[in-house]
Specification:
146 residues; alpha+beta; 7-stranded mixed beta sheet; 5 helices; 7 strands; globular
């Protein structure tokens, strides 16, 4: 496992889109197939615009996870479904906390595994909204490092 800060994103977008889709299909069970397809259209733009993009490669130099950071906010963290449970997310988040002072994030309330993971990593819920940031009926939990 190798953590890399990405500078050239163009060659990685398709691979990271596969990681994103694998992760979302495994964890975002509250989304329909068509909702995932709709959201997927915006992922390349988000990956290109995020100020800090950090990926994890496996031994074959294939991306298996990534996170995006805006200032001290964890904007996104996705691990390929096949690689979940191997400590990759933990290492990635620790890297973000240590190197970029990540101290807050938002997570879908309907993704209890992610919420539990962030709690395990020391984050606590401080706010809840009824809708996500696009106004969809998916409650968000805002968490900060305790």
């Amino acid at each position: 496992m190798k953590i890399i800060e990405v500078t050239d994103r163009n060659s990685l977008i398709e691979q990271l889109l596969k990681v994103w889709e694998s992760s979302v299909k495994a964890t975002h069970l509250f989304l329909s197939v068509s909702e995932i397809e709709d959201i997927k259209k915006y992922v390349p733009q988000a990956l290109n615009e995020i100020p800090k993009l950090i990926i994890v490669e496996n031994e074959n130099q294939v991306p298996v996870g990534f996170m995006g950071i805006v200032e001290q906010h964890l904007e996104m963290l996705f691990i390929s479904h096949e690689e979940r449970g191997k400590g990759i997310g933990k290492e990635l988040l620790k890297y973000g906390i240590d190197k970029y002072s990540v101290n807050d994030l938002a997570v879908n309330e309907q993704n209890p595994l992610a919420k539990g993971f962030y709690e395990y990593m020391g984050f606590e819920v401080y706010k809840r909204t009824e809708c996500d940031e696009q106004g969809n009926p998916y409650p968000l939990l805002y968490m900060r490092l305790a």
